[in-house]
Specification:
Blueprint (H helix, E strand, L loop, with lengths): L5 H25 L8 H11 L11 H6 L4 E6 L1 H6 L1 H10 L2 E4 L22 H12 L3 E8 L8 H4 L5 H15 L6 E6 L16 H6 L3 H12 L4 E6 L7 H19 L6 E4 L2 E3 L6 H13 L3 E10 L7 H19 L5 E6 L8 H5 L21 H12 L7
Parallel strand pairs: 1-2, 1-9, 2-3, 3-4, 4-5, 5-6, 6-8, 7-8, 8-9
Helix pairs in contact: 1-2, 2-13, 8-10, 11-12, 13-15
Bound molecules: ligand 9MR.
Length: 399
């Protein structure tokens, strides 16, 4: 049976499923379960107690991924990278892909791209591009059209008469500046919000309000014109879980992508963010079916913002690290079975810098541990789990 063939892949999936079931049965019979954890986390934790996250530490994540035709990288920003040479060294060692986490958003302090309506400040983004080119790391642009991180001047300046022109000039200037140099662009970010009650699932964002639903298609068309070589991505969160809410979101995203594809819109990939939470279970068959449906549209799939919050886990760091590692490995072993998944980006590389410290801190005040390296830049079990998931993934061709 050829590695990478569909029967080989099915066999691998069956082996993994069996491994998980055996783990559950063995552990539920005798495990000491920590009381404070929610039930779903207790179950997971007991499974992971029996899993050995052992890998050889010889090869970096980017090399293990590349061996399977996958690009691995991480989010990082200009302030972190320019001020922290130890982190920069680790980044170059582990990553083949860089996402600038702030400098290409419209407005994120301390280095906003759009300080005033007619001004662009490319200092941070230019620095990041030079860093990535010097170190042979590809760069992803994040993000051109989003409802968040808009400038303070946006509300008083942009309206339904000029929004199209404002969006046009932004994409023309930003995507045009980096023409031919970006691996990919997150062109439209988080445009679906089913709770907003529209039949097409679109979020009631300022862009929708000012331009109507066609703003999504237009954004892709302008970006393709300005940078015909970059892969153009629709990026969203909450697509990973087994809940009804995730079902509805997956359905709306598929509907949006099908519509865009049927109109010949230049969209090349879906970005599945992958902000995972130990309390939110994943239904592997729902996730597999969704990825297969996206692939059937002719799209690639990028895992764009992978991390795992430990906010519901007990204080003990070893327990937290084991559960987090298990969640990484389970998720990656499902998604990497789909050969159209071609990039994996974690939202940060080290616990030293993660948005979760600010947005989802732990109630006990302990530092969070969601990423592959700890805050001293040492590899954690999560690193091993990601490495193992790459080692076990079927091969694919980088498209
Ligand atoms: O990690 C990012 C954080 O530092 C910013 O303050 C925030 C607002 O711009 O965005 C965070 O990143 C988000 C990403 O851009 C889009 N998906 C969700 C991410 C986490 O909130």
């Amino acid at each position: 049976m050829a590695p990478g063939s569909s029967s080989h892949n099915r066999l691998l999936s069956r082996r993994r499923a069996l491994h998980l079931c055996l783990g559950t049965a063995a552990c539920l019979s005798g495990a000491v379960i920590q009381r404070k954890m929610p039930l779903v986390v207790q179950r997971r934790s007991s499974v992971y107690n029996n899993r050995e996250f052992v890998v050889d530490g010889q090869r970096a994540l980017k090399d293990r991924a590349a061996a399977k035709g996958i690009l691995y990288g991480a989010e990082i920003n200009h302030q972190q990278l320019s001020a922290d040479s130890d982190l920069a060294a680790q980044f170059i060692q582990e990553c083949a892909l860089l996402v600038e986490g702030g400098g290409l958003k419209w407005f994120l302090t301390p280095s906003p791209l759009r300080p005033a309506p007619n001004t662009f400040d490319f200092t941070a983004a230019d620095w990041m591009l030079r860093f990535s080119q010097t170190n042979q790391v590809k760069m992803r642009g994040h993000t051109l059209v989003w409802h968040q991180s808009l400038p303070p001047w946006f509300e008083e300046t942009v309206n339904n008469r000029n929004a199209e022109q404002v969006m046009h000039s932004h994409i023309r200037t930003v995507a045009g500046r980096y023409r031919g140099q970006m691996h990919s662009w997150d062109v439209v970010n988080e445009a679906i919000r089913v709770q907003d009650g529209r039949s097409d699932g679109l979020r009631k964002s300022p862009w929708l309000e000012f331009m109507g639903p066609d703003y999504v298609e237009l954004a892709f068309r302008i970006t393709a014109e300005m940078d015909p070589n970059a892969k153009l991505v629709y990026n969203d969160f909450g697509l990973e879980f087994g809940s009804r809410k995730s079902d509805a979101k997956r359905e709306s995203v598929l509907q949006l992508l099908s519509k865009l594809m049927s109109k010949g819109t230049p969209v090349h990939a879906l970005g599945v963010q992958g902000h995972l939470d130990t309390t939110r279970p994943i239904n592997s068959s729902k996730l597999r079916n969704f990825l297969a449906d996206v692939a059937a549209l002719g799209l690639e799939i990028f895992i764009t913002e992978l991390d795992v919050t430990d906010r519901s886990l007990p204080a003990d760091a070893a327990t937290r690290d084991r559960v987090i590692a298990g969640v990484y490995e389970d998720f990656l072993s499902i998604v990497l079975d789909e050969p159209r998944v071609t990039t994996v980006t974690t939202w940060g590389l080290s616990d030293r810098y993660t948005w979760l410290s600010e947005f989802f801190p732990r109630s006990d005040g302990l530092p969070v541990r969601p990423l592959p390296l700890d805050s001293d830049l040492n590899r954690k079990l999560a690193w091993n789990a990601i490495a193992r998931a790459f080692d076990n993934a079927p091969s694919r061709t980088i498209i």
